[in-house]
Specification:
Largest sheet: 7 strands, mixed
Low-confidence stretches: none
Strand content: 15-25%
Order of helices and strands: EEEHEEHEHHHEHEHEEHHHE
Strand order of the largest sheet: 6-7-8-3-9-10-11
Mean pLDDT: 91
Number of helices: 10
Number of strands: 11
């Protein structure tokens, strides 16, 4: 099966300016050599610490940030040069439903603005289209003329999901789409996303710091650290037997009832600056298993000895530590 989205060696850097003439003195390497595939009707979970580049990668795929290097192909076409008809097929749900909706617009205007702008419907058809979208996200059609401040956080996020669905995308990017919600509301929105995926045959790029949610949502998982992917594979295999020391530390932090005390792996030191990443393996300053080769050479993201064919890790000792 051909991938729906194919990313190769993607870089998104942000210049650092200093001085009166705003001289460029360096770059923040937010995304630095990422390669990923997302297949039709698949959910890829993207996890990692805050600041590792997850949201920048999502915004680059959505063409909200301009990549410095690398390629992105969507349905076989170069994404950065694609026509608007292709770009419409990638939509994004943002983290904060309180700031992602225009407070001056009614639900009717929010849900149908894209349809009108892209000439998918005429103005006279806005109400009918909006009612269909509301039914898709489980909301009453009587809310059409209400404003965002009149809704709860969960309801606002349903409206955000409806807005993203309005143009009938093929790929939906969920950037921490449930992290700002209460736990009970999170479950409702997660079930809604699963239902929408089955109904419309969508693919998801699901970004979250909550590995429990990712395990429930994702078919495959990619683990990101300091702008690079360090491990990738089926969600259940990675969650049950992580191969990379960083993934092992992340998964050890998931709360478990009855878990043995002392099993959590606490990483030492701080995350290095993305403006000056360390040489060799970027994780070596915090890795309890680092050797001399880790400080000299950067490991490739590839299959490893003893691992399944559908798993990759960027570690010289993948699967042999922990």
């Amino acid at each position: 099966m051909n991938p729906l989205l194919q990313i190769r060696d993607l870089q998104t850097w942000f210049p650092i300016h200093r001085g009166v003439i705003s001289r460029t003195v360096g770059n923040v390497r937010a995304v630095d050599g990422v390669s990923l595939d997302i297949y039709p009707n698949e959910t890829l979970g993207l996890v990692g610490e805050s600041g590792c580049g997850k949201s920048t990668l999502a915004r680059t795929v959505a063409l909200l940030e301009k990549p410095r290097a690398g390629t992105m192909h969507f349905s076989g076409q170069v994404l950065s040069q694609a026509q608007p008809g292709i770009r419409r097929k990638i939509q994004m749900i943002f983290q904060d439903p309180y700031s992602s909706l225009n407070p001056r617009m009614t639900v009717l205007e929010i849900l149908t603005e894209g349809l009108v702008q892209h000439r998918r419907i005429k103005s006279s058809g806005r109400v009918t289209a909006a009612r269909e979208i509301l039914a898709d996200v489980g909301m009453d059609p009587d809310v059409l003329y209400r404003y965002p401040h009149e809704f709860s956080g969960g309801q606002r996020q349903r409206i955000s999901i409806g807005r993203a669905l309005s143009l009938k995308p093929e790929l939906l990017i969920c950037d921490e789409a449930v992290s700002a919600l209460d736990v009970s509301v999170q479950a409702q929105v997660i079930n809604l996303l699963l239902s929408i995926r089955r109904k419309h045959g969508l693919s998801y790029l699901f970004i979250s710091h909550d590995l429990g949610v990712v395990r429930h949502m994702a078919d495959r998982v990619a683990v990101m650290y300091l702008g690079q992917i360090v491990e990738e594979g089926p969600a259940d295999k990675i969650m049950d037997a992580p191969a990379h020391p960083y993934t092992q530390a992340l998964i050890s932090a998931i709360p478990r009832i009855g878990a043995e005390k002392g099993k959590r792996i606490v990483l030492q030191g701080d995350v290095p600056s993305p403006a000056a990443p360390p040489p060799g393996c970027r994780f070596h300053p915090r890795c309890p298993y680092a050797q001399d080769i880790c400080r000299r050479e950067q490991p490739e993201l590839k299959g490893y000895e003893g691992g399944d064919s559908d798993r990759k890790a960027a570690c010289f000792f993948a699967g042999r530590v922990g």
